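Might I ask for a little of your time on a matter of protein folding? Here, with my thanks, is the record as I have it:
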Amino acid sequence: MTQAKHLFRKLQHAFGQDTLSADRALISAIQTQPRTALTTAELCDLTEQLGLPVIDKTEEQMERDWYLYRGQKLIRQESWTELSVEIQQFDEMRAMTSGGTPISELLTRGARGDIVQPIRQSLEDQDTSPNTDGLSAYQAIADANPKDYGIAMIVAYTHLDAAWVWRHYSPQPEAKVSRNAQHHHFKIARALLDPFDPKRLNAPALAAAKCAALSTQESPKTSNTKLYETLVSLDPKTAQYLRNFGANLLPRRFGSYEMLNTWALKAVEHTRTLWGTGAYAWVYMDALRQDAGAFGVLDLNLFMEAVIDILERCSDQHTANLFAAFTAVTLVQPAPGRESFSGRRRRLQLNEAADWIIETQLREIHPLVWADSLPRGLGIPGDLGTEARKELGEETAVRILAHRQSKSRG
């Protein structure tokens, strides 16, 4: 535990002063437009000083792309049964990518990418009566295969995608037509999944789909938390499920700050043989990103002990980049919501801990991870293409890491 003692001493020296204005200014100054030759040369110099290679195509990204393409290819060939068999097999195996993404969910995502795009395009063109023929064709396939949970998952997720598009791209997201459309798609998604029991089928990806189809307006909080409990009990090794559980325990979803902390502690006990104390950090991670109030109930020392346990068990660079970017970038400004003085202090202390993660764990830079870590409210478009996101993530990582390096030497 020498590493932990070193880190905790570092945390104790962070007294809560907001020293992050320079970091925020660096991030805010990054442009999403194509780089100039001067910027490219500057970034090359900074990268060389850091001594960390920028990995344009990471192992995690290549694996994700392969399974997304596989799902898309089989659907375009109308090989629904073959795809469903693969989804169910990978689900039973709890198979995931090297970075921890469930493969069965990637296959479903690849299978539905073509369907919702026309709906989004119509809404962006101010047309609130979009063509849904593609969605209707998917629904007909599900109706013809009522006992196939793999097909039900694909079609249910497609309806959830449609609901998300209505929420984010409708000309008037709060208008009755938009709310009715969202309600309609959520209702159909739940109806598609209701006949299937994740426990009986030993199917965590199915449980995850049921959790995704939950609605804050229509479902009792107790039944919602039970669904997530089922999911975590079926597959405690998939960190994304723990992260989703934490985000959904926030007051704006199905829980409260007290429930968040209670379940984070319970998750530690349920997964100790797998994660040590790591589940505590996984449950809190997305909650801290989405709601400043979550810092008010956070046990800072336990969180950092959990991060150490995770990094000891996951030696891959995807995970190292994930926590380096979370602490160094996501935490430079408060999440939405009211930030208390004690919560602010904890956030700043966690941001200080980024130095230890960077110095001891980071051996290469994964741009997309850093792009995904950027806090909201910086005016960055949410629908950047992959290449633009890579450039944004690379510049964010290089500038922040170089700035921290210069501070530590100065």
